[in-house]
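Progress report, Aim 2. The chain analyzed during this reporting quarter is listed below.
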Amino acid sequence: MGQFRLMPEKGKLYQAKVTYPDGSEKSVKLPPVLESGYVLSVYNNTETDTVLVRIIANPSVLEKGSQTVSLIAQSGGSVSYASSMPIGKAQTSLSIPAKDLPSGITQFTLFSSTGDPMNERIIFIQNNDQMDVKLSTAKKVYAAKEKVEIDVSAASANGAPISGNFSVSVVSEEAVPVDEAKENTIFSQILLSSDIKGYIEKPSYYFNNPTEETKSNLDLLMLTQGYRRFVWKDITAGKPFQPAFKAEKLTTNVTGRLLSLGEKPIARRKDNIDK
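Predicted structure tokens for the chain:
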């Protein structure tokens, strides 16, 4: 994954020429250049724990006079930020505290004054709000079939104790080698994999040991695989969603024999069975 800057010119068409490791090539046409419009830039500044949003309007937009646009941020179907703002200059900036946004993927959409979606950008919010779980045992080496007792302590990010239900699986890393960076955990599945399309090679790489490098690569993942699965215009127009497959009707039929306590058949008896 990577990124580069491109300043498109009016009247020109662009394409990306991709060379794969096996030497094969593929050309991908880029969207045509628009003469008028906005650029939406969203930057997650981890040093200041703020999300910086920049809205850039080109000169042809400003020639029409001051306009009002709306910015909506949502995560998991819930709106976490909404604001309307006048656009009267080339660049308009605003900052949003990261703590005001939930951990996970947040989608920013810029709407025109008539409610038409114009730009979209998704980012990943990685707040320090995960549960801190610690395991400890009385000793490091046990004999075969020896009883092992494990002490489990769970606390919130601020150190407050947490109660809950936990499950533990034990495997031999010699028999089943584990690369935690490649594993798909409950954490990475709920916050990441389930909300973007495409295959993620190392889902836990972004969470096991978060660094500035992993956070930068996570943002590249948002840019490469983060385009949404639905069309805004269908939603704003009230167009009903048509699923690709109809919901299955689940029916369960149970057959058998009804016996008395003495295991003798009971004839012509019908009973309701709770399912």
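Residues 141 and 148 are 10 Å apart (CA to CA). The chain has a mean pLDDT of 86. These observations will guide the mutagenesis work planned for the next reporting period.
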